[in-house]
Amino acid sequence: MPLIHMHVSIGNYSQRLIQKRFFLVLFFILPLVACPLWGQVVQKKQLVSSDYYGWGKIIIDKVSPDEKWVCYKMEYEKGGDTLFIRNHFSHKSYSFLKGRNGFFAGNKFICKIDKGITIVDLKTAFRENLSDVDRYSYNQQTEQLIFLLADKEAKKKLVIRSFKNSTIREIKDVTDFSLSPSGNHLAYFSNDNNTSFVSQINLKTQEGPKLIALNKKGNFMGFTWNKNGNALAFYQQDRNMKINALIYYLSKEDKLYKLDSASAVGFPKNTDIIYENLNGIFISDDAEKVFFSIKNQEEIISKSHQSDVEIWNGNDKWTYLQEKNFGNFENGPKTVMWIPKTNYFSAVTSNEFPKVILSGNYKYAIISNPKQYEPQFDFNGPRDYYLLDLSTFQKSLLLQRQSYDHKNLIASPKGKSFAYFSENNWWVYNLEEKKHINLTTSLGVKFTAKLHDLRIESICGSPGWTVDDNELVIYDKYDIWVLSTSGNEARRLTHGKEEKIRFRIADMASKNIDNYIYDGLTSREIDIRKDLILQAEGEDGKTGYFRWSPDGSLKPIVYKNSFIDQLNYGVEKKNFYFREQKFNISPQLVLKEKNKESITILKSNPKQEKFFWGKSELINYSIKGHSLKAVLYYPAQYDPKIKYPMIVKIYDRQSNQLHKFENPTYKNVNGFNTTLFTSENYFVLKPDLLLEAKNPGISASSCVISAVNEVVETGIVDSSKIGLVGHSYGGFESSFIITQTQLFSAAIASGAITDLNSYYHTINSKSGKPEMWRFGIEQWTMLATPYEAPESYWSNSPIAHIKNVNTPVLLWTGKVDSQVDTHQSFEFYLALRRLGKKCIMLQYPDETHLLINPLNQKDVTERTMDWFRYFLKNDQSALWVEKGTK
Question: What is the mean pLDDT of residues 617-630?
Answer without folding.
Answer: 96
